[in-house]
Structures are given as C-alpha cells and as structure tokens.
Design goal:
single chain; 471 residues; alpha/beta; five-stranded mixed barrel; 20% strand; globular; binds iron/sulfur cluster
C-alpha cells in the first residue's frame, strides 16, 4: 500500500469544495466501506461528482474476488484515469499481489495516486487530503468526524440498509482469497453495532440486512466478551445480537434479515426468534456443496455438520423458513457421484433460492493446487444441470404461495402505485432474490408508497417473481 509519506507534494487548496467522483464495485461489505468513505467526505465538506470528467479526483472501491470482478475493477480504474487522471484505489483488489509479488493495481495502472486495501477509510481520506485538499471552512472544520458514529451516507434506498457486524474471516476455504485481502475476523463491538442499528431504524430504515463474511462467528475473536448497550451488559455473540436486533426492530415495525450464516449448532437458537417473527424466517447459508469429501477439500466451515438434518430441524422449528444458498459445481476432483449427491441434496433440502458458479480458479487460492481440475465444459455442464434442478425446486415453492396473503415492503411504486409496483416479501432479499410484482389496484383509493409495508394476495408467478394484488 502506498502511504501518504511516499506521495507527491500537496497541491494548493481550491477556493470551492472539491468534487470527488466515486465508483463502488463488489459485494455489500464493499458497499458499507464505500458508505463510510462517502460519509467522511461529506462530513469534511467535499462534494461528489456524477462524472469522472467533472471531478477533481476519483475514488474507485474495487472487488478482487473472481476474475470477472478483477477485470471490471481494472477497467474502471483505466476509464477513470483516462477521463480524469487523478485516481485513488481502495478495496479488495488493492490488497492483491500480481504475478511478480508486487501490487497488482500498481502494476497495471502505475499512475494511480494511492492504493489501499479494504476497510481503510482513514488511509483513503489521508490520500484525498493530500491530492485534493479541502478549503478551510470555519463551520465544517468545527464539526467532529462522524465515521462509524452516525448513520452517515447510505448507498442503498432509504428503507433498507446493510449492517456490517464484523470484518475478515478466520476460515481458509481453499477456493477463497478473502482472508488474504480482508484479514482475520474482527468483530465490531456489540454496543456500536446496536447503536448503528438503532440510528438506522430511527432514520426510517424498514429492513436491516446483517452482513459479514461469517455471521455465525460473530464475537469468536473477542471470546464473546461482554459489551454494553443501553446501560446493560450484552455478550458479543450472534444469538444475543439477534435478540437485541429483534427487540429494536419490533419497536420500529421493521425487518431484520441475516446473511452469510454458517450452520453451526448455535444457529438453532435463532430459529424460535424467526418463528415468532422477531427476525425474518430467512437464512442465507452459503453451503457451496453437500458431499462431505468435497466440503473437506473446500475446507468449508462446519463441514462435519449434518447439514441436511440440521436444515430439516430448522424447518420444523420455523415452518415458514426460506433458505438461500450458493453452490460451486465442478470443484477440483468432484466425481459424478459427488455431483449427484449435490443434486439429491438440492431436491431433499428444498433450497428456496440457489445460485451456482461453475468452479473457476481464483489467483492465489489453494484449491488451484488440488488434483483433478475438471475441463471447463464439464464444470459448465454441471452448473447448468444444477440450475435446472434448483429452478424446478424454486418454481414449485413459488407456486405454493399462490392464494396466500403476504406482507411486502414496497421498493418501487410509480404514480403512487396506480400503475402497480414492485415489492419484496420476507422471502426476497434485495438485489439477489426475486420480488413481488403488484398489479395496478382496481380502486384508485388504494395507493402504494416506497419504503412502506403493504399486504398482497398472491395470484400467480412470473419466473423468479410472484405476482399479487393489494388487499
Ligand atoms: S468462510 Fe470461506 S468463503 Fe467465506 S470468506 Fe471465509 S474463507 Fe472465504
């Protein structure tokens, strides 16, 4: 990482607020990093620019996970350099080494002003101050920094927000390089997490999406130490966090949705909260595979757990439970029998929403050294076979909802919903799942408003979506 000490001499401050162009690429965790940087920029009086050309400097928050993401990030940096010339790079790709062991971004784009890894708000701000100093402002310069304290700048719509509870990961899945980019697990203090949740709810957020690399591991790094919230002791633990979030959400009539949950035994304790509605009965569990030998080769967390039995128990405890998951087809050494095991798991586990990648080697991942790399055609063919089963399961589950009445959160409602709208039920996380299309209401008195809940009777399905009418 380049630090401010090796950089150029400081240009003079402008007589107006400098404009910063910002591009945020990658996953929700990268999005929360972008929100922290934008919050800090705003707090310090910087303005944002919608175009590269109209900016005094551009920040690109990159993703470095899979080859396509690396390419997109490098292309974006190239575009920003061509159109603007002053570019700071942050995010996962910034922490990635090239073939020669040097920094990959610097190698591909030597003229970038600074490169940092992920969750590096302070380093990014140091570089911004150096290359585009803000003018002295007698008012703003008295305002204390807000990073990590207020609700700050959100890149999501007003009615939902991501709540990042930890950074990094203690696992070493053989296909993944996230720990080498984001480091080991660091849990945020429970008081800070709950404080942020409360502020978001008070600001009108109706759906809070809990994210991390491994939500079930929250607090492991601090040995589940007791923190404080609202003057009371609370353990830094997933179950305590969920109980408190459920209490807060209930006060504000809001939803809480959990992502990246690994099937550890203590997750069982969350199920009663889901059955009672405190936390949405929705779990995003990245299983990646079902066969124990493949899971061992993948070095997956909880690979010794009996996932199918656990899942069936979860469904008994919370019959409405919706499971979203991701899988990898054609992992090195995957036999046809192991792949068939995965298809059988999909059918039996009745995974409501599944995504699948054909295995693709990620630079720096230890899985690249495993024997038995399969030809790309086999990997792609297995992915297609997996998706055919997944879509069958998912479509059948969607059809079962016809006739039901569901609570939905409205995401879009042109002309106050007189032309219908788009919403999501508890079964649909934003961006990754389907939605509920609301038909134009027959009575003009029935309206919809973005960010509000509505009740909808499901009348049909359309691909991955449901179709309903307002009740
Ligand atoms: S659990 Fe595995 S896949 Fe997920 S971030 Fe950690 S190492 Fe990567």
């Amino acid at each position: 990482m380049q630090t401010v000490s090796d950089a150029i001499s400081r240009p003079p401050a402008l007589d107006r607020a400098p404009k910063i162009g910002f591009v945020s690429l990658g996953c929700p965790k990268a999005l929360t990093d972008s929100e922290l940087i934008l919050t800090q920029l705003r707090a310090e009086g910087y303005e944002t620019s919608k175009t590269f050309a109209g900016a005094d400097l551009v920040i690109v928050n990159t993703c470095g996970f899979i080859d396509d993401a690396v390419k997109e990030s490098l292309d974006t940096i190239g575009e920003a350099l061509a159109e603007n010339g002053k570019v700071i790079v942050t995010g996962c790709l910034g922490a990635k080494a090239g073939d020669d062991g040097g920094n990959l971004v610097r190698k591909m784009h030597p003229s970038v002003l600074a490169v940092t890894g992920p969750h590096a708000t302070n380093e990014v701000m140091d570089a911004v101050h150096l290359h585009s100093p803000k003018p002295h402002d007698p008012f703003f310069d008295l305002v204390p920094a807000v990073s990590g304290q207020g609700i700050g700048v959100k890149l999501t719509p007003r009615h939902y927000a991501y709540l990042k509870i930890s950074e990094g990961c203690n696992h070493r899945c053989s296909f993944c390089i996230i720990p080498s980019m984001r480091g080991d697990l660091v849990s945020r203090p429970i008081g800070d997490v709950l404080g942020e949740a409360q502020r978001l709810f008070e600001a009108g957020v109706k759906e809070l999406l809990v994210i991390s690399q491994d939500t079930s591991a929250y607090g492991v790094d601090v040995k589940f130490r007791t923190g404080f919230w609202d003057g009371r002791p609370v353990k830094t633990h997933m179950t305590d966090l969920c109980e408190k979030l459920a209490e807060l959400a209930a006060k504000h009539g809001a939803w809480v949705r959990l992502h990246y949950v690994y099937p550890y035994p203590h997750v069982d304790q969350i199920l009663p909260l889901m059955a009672s509605g405190g936390i949405l009965p929705y779990l995003d569990v990245p299983f990646q595979h079902s066969h124990p030998d493949v899971l061992k080769r993948m070095k997956r967390p909880a690979n010794g757990e009996k996932n199918l039995e656990r899942l069936l128990r979860w469904r008994e405890a919370s019959p409405e439970l919706v499971i979203r998951s991701t899988f990898i087809a054609g992992f090195p050494g995957e036999t046809e029998a192991e792949f068939e095991h995965l298809l059988g798991f999909m059918r039996e586990a009745q995974i409501d929403r599944a995504g699948c990648f054909a295995y693709s080697a990620v630079d720096g991942a230890t899985a690249n050294d495993l024997p038995g790399m399969l030809p790309i055609e086999v990997r792609e063919e297995r992915r297609a076979r997996f998706m055919a089963v997944a879509e069958e399961v998912s479509a059948a589950k969607l059809r079962q909802r016809i006739g039901a009445t569901m609570q939905v959160l409205v995401d879009s409602a042109p002309a106050l919903g007189r032309r219908g709208g788009v919403a999501r039920s508890y079964a649909d996380a934003p961006e990754i799942d389907g939605s509920v299309k609301i038909l134009p209401p027959e009575k003009a008195s029935k309206t919809l408003k973005v960010g509000e809940f509505a009740r909808v009777k499901i009348v049909g399905t359309q691909g991955h979506d449901l179709v309903g009418t307002l009740v």
